[in-house]
User: Fold these one by one.
Assistant:
Number 1:
Amino acid sequence: MKCSKNTMLLYAVTNSKLVSKLPLIEQVELALKGGITCLQLREKELDEASFLAEAIEIKKMCEKYHVPFIINDNVNVAIKCGADGVHVGQSDMEVSEVRKLVGDNMIIGVSAHTVQEAKLAEAGGADYLGVGAIYQTTTKQDATYVSLNELKRICNSVKIPVVAIGGMDRNTISKLSGTGVDGVAMVSAIFAADDIEQECKKLLRLSKDMVTDLER
């Protein structure tokens, strides 16, 4: 499965720390029904065996809805479960090394905070960039913040798709107009919603409108 700009429109990132009455797999299916265009499984505290078991289950769900399935950080789990891709941060393995391990067909996403990081990631073989945090977020306590001006410079400096993350919700999506970004990545705005499916439908419409505004 290849990465395109449409993949970035509504990029959901799981967070098992969010309190929910539903198991994660059910939350994910509601998000898929609501129209998310990509799903990243993020597990910082599970042991590798548990992470892999969860990944295999959620991958099947993503296949059912034909949505790319990305593993956060753990290249081994991504390979073992047959994920569509893996996302790595600046403190993780070099993207060129990740590419050697996963081959040409797996999507690689890289976190970037500056134009220099973005260019290096693209040159190393990244398929898309996750840029942020754009706004204040409680999901990542050590987040590095990126201004809208820097986001715009990053988008203008690379040819691969760019997704904005950090403090993204229905009130902040429109503020990205004019930056050149291809979509939004969300954690709490999706998985802490009272009605995940309906919220995703609203968020997807807002993201499409924002991207359409950029193209006019």
Note: The beta strands are 10-13, 38-41, 69-72, 85-88, 107-112, 128-131, 162-165, 183-186.
Number 2:
Amino acid sequence: MTQNHKHCPHPGMHGEMASCRLCRIEVDKLSVILGKQTLLKDVSLHIHCGELTALIGTNGAGKTTLLRALLGQVEHKGSIRHLTSDGRPAADLRTGYVPQQLEFDRSSPVTVMDFLAGSLSRRAVFLGVSRKMREKVMAALTRTHCEALADRPLGALSGGELQRVLLALALTPQPDLLILDEPVSGVDQNGLESFYQTVDELKHKNHMAILLVSHDLGVVERYADRVVLMQGTVIKQGSPEVVFDSPEFEQVFYTKGVRV
């Protein structure tokens, strides 16, 4: 993408002003119907640059369906608008995506360098990695503090290391919206904390919009600026404190005082 969007002044967590390429994404009365089944109904929310917005809810609440709608993978009713600070359409939104896990042959000798170089260019890996591409890959890995992994086999990485490599890929080129879909499921506590500390650093440094799907409510409470509680639609949204202290949250996550 080559078009530059106007800067979007938007207060951060401490009231400071920063700028970003995209101001906000407005989702208005979005519905997804598959056959005779309504997967989402009248979903409305805003996703702002410089904020991490977390989608929470039980299995089947529609979180993944909403992600797929935002990525243009499912048909929907309603609207999704990408806007600049003056309310004009922000053309050609660039999205980075980190999946829950990467399916690949762990016995393969492909290195992290090979994997990223192959993903970022059309040149076959067996032809070798050019010096220019190697520099680009190293710059990407440095952003997520995993440059030391460049020559390691992809299959030898821990879960946390692999997700940081996928994060580096999602950030190249710089996205306007970063989507994290249960990005550290099954990763140990150290890997989890390291991953989210890096994401938090990137949010403040680059002022990008970040959308997270997570079942780890502790992570959401620590790192999210805004929380959207879903149950086929949006039933509560606001700061973590507002959502977690709401009757809607208690109804979804607690039964007779015991968290489900």
Note: The radius of gyration is 19 Å.
Number 3:
Amino acid sequence: MAESLIIEATDLHKSYDGVEALRGLTLSVPAGSIYGFLGRNGAGKTTTIKVLLGMARPSSGQVRVFGLEAGNPEIRRRTGFVSEEKDLYDYMTVDEMIRFTAPFFPRWRADLEQRYLRKFELPSNRKVKALSRGTRTKLALLLALCRGAELLILDEPTSGLDPAMTEEVLQALVAHVAGEETTVFFSSHQIAEVDQIADHVAIIDRGCAVVTGALDDLRESYRQIQLVFDGDAPQAAFGAPGVVRVRRKGRMLTVMSSGGTEEIVEEARALQPVSVEVVPVTLKEIFLETVAGEE
């Protein structure tokens, strides 16, 4: 049976004053997934979120959320959004912020409200302007998690948090998805966070997705083939499909592959290395080779 998709974006382009922020971005976000949207600062992550929420119109391409064209008001009613700025009213208390927000959402969950007030240890009577950055983040998440949203879109949700608070937020997201049948789409440039909780991932660079897929599938398909030679490693070009990058350093030649490992190894043996080793790779290594390696 075909996988149900919450977000479908095809060949998205978006320019600001002649500068391309998105350059043919294509994404498919399955229902019920925790989808990590990974990239360096300036890669196009926030622009993508604005397009998904109808806050910006693409220059070209198609995007649908819940099967609806981007910009349809129904999308915002069914979506919880937390921006990187964690927009809140400073003059309100925590309780006033919650009481102000809840009536806008008919599916507001009072049970979740009480759960996250306790879990996040939010001080009900304290003014928002007096909250630490981490506590502001937890309040913004509470407001998103309690509205009965089918989709949570989070822009750098743990930005500025200390490691303990980051862990608390990440675990809350995992538990929420498991218990509430919600889809989470979260942007980050923190590889470890994506690796920890995401089950699907897209790596974006310069406005287009360079890697997409289920995280387990990516871990299974990507490999490093390490060749060691008696003398300096030779210059080599590989014809087998799946070669992502070839690095040469001293006696070692390292090939990153996204598939077709056996064919690459067969080509490699023709170079007569002293040894050939095939090793699995981490998400960090995939990221560094496909994005940071483009510097």
Note: The chain has two domains: 5-214, 222-294.
Number 4:
Amino acid sequence: MIRAGIIGSTGYAGGELVRILTRHKDVEIKWFGSRSYIDQKYASVYQNMFQIVDAVCMDDNMDELAGQVDVIFTATPQGLCASLVNEEILSKVKIIDLSADFRIKDVATYENWYGISHKSPQFIEEAVYGLCEINREDVKKARLIANPGCYTTCSILTAYPLAKEGLIDMSTLIIDAKSGTSGAGRGAKVPNLYCEVNENIKAYGVATHRHTPEIEEQLGYASGEEVVLNFTPHLVPMNRGILATEYAKLTREVSYEEVKAVYDKYYADEKFVRVLDKDVCPETKWVEGSNYVDIGFKIDTRTNRIIMMGAIDNLVKGAAGQAVQNMNLAFGLPEDEGLNLVPMFP
């Protein structure tokens, strides 16, 4: 059995990790870390875990935790993992970090967009960006895995094949994305109160959202050029889900069949990426509660642009599910172990 510890187990992503790992046949959760609920029963924080999880919440002592487990998940705000990790810890366990601390390779870019100093830049270079469909072989050998952001997972996978094959002009790429409120975390914030969110949709982080450089960096690797794009997220009154609608100018005239063949080249054998049938658009309700990414596209011959669409559950493929997928790869397990989650409906 793989012994797992979770720091930040009472946030939304941490709670989802617990939900997934409790049904994973090769994992035992040994440490339910939560600075806010130390010594409280985990099931008193998440009542859905009543008579399923009997453990009490512990602190975020990564040094002590590293001596008890094989893998540590850090589902914490930016900066915490970087402040705790050290060489001794990495010599004992694998770390899968759900924050942005090790996603961006340029320290100055990270510090500029996140507004904090990086506490352990010496580990950035070795950290593997854990987008499994793209970096699978590197993930298998990693001891420090940077779990991608939710918006970024959806945005990158939706455009990746066309960026890789040079079918879109990267300088024209615009990403418009919508997310449910769980993406903002479990902390109490006035903008996320029911009366503020219900019956409303709003853009936020316009031209400043912190996932922008992550998307630019990864699509830059794919296209082989520097990418600068517009990314605008929106908050919608639902619990879960992300829908990304992406627009770009085509570099040449293409048919539906040609574009579909490009997506199939990269995703036909991917368990968790579903390229939809012609004229079927992704919807968040068809991926809710699952680790799937649904992708569709439409060619607009009138404007010589292509419209790419992707949908994920932000807490599963956008966070906890992807983290477990990374763990499976890193420990030589079947990639889908514990993740065969049929989307919930309604």
Note: The domain at 2-126 is CATH 3.40.50.720 (Rossmann fold).
